[in-house]
Specification:
23% helix, 75 residues, alpha+beta, three-stranded antiparallel sheet
């Protein structure tokens, strides 16, 4: 079963991280041990193919899986 279609394009609505991501990352730092870090201060709302969309509406390319991002990333 496939989820909703997510356009495979980069689109920035806010700076990175956006205000909603900043607020959630701040809340996270109060509740989660500093030993559990974050690679990127972005909170993902949905993902598909090679794109992730954060809580601020920014669509960014998912580089988390490196060269295999489309084959093993969020597809």
């Amino acid at each position: 079963m496939h989820g909703p279609h997510i356009p495979q394009e980069r689109k920035l609505v806010t700076s990175i991280p956006g205000p909603k991501s900043q607020e959630l990352v701040s809340r996270r730092s109060e509740a989660v041990s500093a030993g559990l870090g974050m690679a990127v201060p972005v909170v993902v709302e949905k993902a598909g193919g090679g794109v992730v969309i954060d809580v601020d509406g920014n669509s960014i390319i998912d580089m988390g899986a490196g060269i295999a991002v489309v084959s093993v990333g969020n597809s």
